[in-house]
Amino acid sequence: MALLETWRKLAYETEMNQNQATQFWGNYFNLEKGIYEQILSTPDEPVSGTVKELAEKFNVEVLIMTGFLDGINDSLKNPNPIETMEEDTQVNLDYDKEKLYYNMVGAKADWLYELPQWDNLLDEAKRKELYKKQKLSGTVIKGKKIGRNEPCPCGSGKKYKNCCGKNA
């Protein structure tokens, strides 16, 4: 069984009561924060190696590293083969800093996007811009309301109430 499948079974499919889930995720998020503190502190040194080597480097279990790799994969310049990776699979942590920050905001991971290490990577204005862009990406903007007697926007030439607005 691939590492990712094992991680997802452990993290998402294992029956846990509220207390166990809080403890599991609290521990994971704490370890994740520690890894990010290290990789954000040395942005010019892209980290790479096997899954097992990275787990040893960051002092975490292989499955925790697998969860971390799953989380960061969308923010990497060259995504890792996470679906098929095993302990000896070569992976990298060469991240796009703007994309990573944007994705952290999207995941509502304030313990990560508020890390002090971001001060040296992105200026405050850029962080605010990315934060605002992410928050607005989920905002639905409704168009102008169509009046019942206005021409239907589908182009039929009929009044809206006699066309697309019939069942509205």
From TrEMBL:
Residue stretches spanning the membrane: none
Gene3D superfamilies linked: 3.10.450.50
SUPFAM superfamilies: Sec-C motif (SSF103642)
Cited Pfam families: SEC-C
Protein name in the entry: SEC-C domain-containing protein
Species name: Lachnospira hominis (ex Liu et al. 2021)
